């Protein structure tokens, strides 16, 4: 008679897609912003990394950003799994998990820098 409906849960897969969509949007914005910066005609190549080609910059980004991205994706999986049980909206769950994962990775990076 008085059946109480089970609480609605967000879909884990859809929430994860929303989080990955946020990461893709940020990466695309960084790429477009970097591509829009004109090259200076008189570059002084005395500074480290000042005269890199776009291919060298991409390689450096992959080498330095790979571990950060791996940690970000791992923490996104964990945070999405925790939030999908409690939040009924997949969009909200994905957004919160992306934001929470960025905070987790930033804190982990700060702790790592502090211990060095």
From TrEMBL:
Keywords assigned by UniProt, alphabetized: Membrane, Transmembrane, Transmembrane helix
Domain of life: Bacteria
TM stretches of this protein: 12-32, 58-84, 91-112
Protein name: Vitamin K epoxide reductase domain-containing protein
UniProt organism field: Plantactinospora mayteni
Lineage of the species this protein comes from: Bacteria, Bacillati, Actinomycetota, Actinomycetes, Micromonosporales
């Amino acid at each position: 008679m008085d059946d109480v409906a089970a609480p609605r849960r967000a879909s884990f897969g859809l929430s994860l897609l929303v989080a990955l969509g946020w990461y893709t949007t940020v990466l695309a914005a960084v790429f477009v912003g970097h591509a829009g910066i004109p090259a200076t005609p008189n570059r002084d190549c005395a500074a480290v990394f000042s005269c890199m080609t776009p291919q060298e910059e991409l390689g450096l980004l992959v080498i330095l950003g790979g571990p950060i991205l791996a940690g970000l994706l791992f923490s996104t999986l964990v945070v999405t799994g925790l939030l999908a049980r409690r939040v009924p909206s997949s969009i909200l769950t994905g957004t919160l998990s992306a934001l929470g994962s960025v905070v987790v990775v930033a804190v982990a990076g700060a702790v790592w820098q502090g211990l060095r």
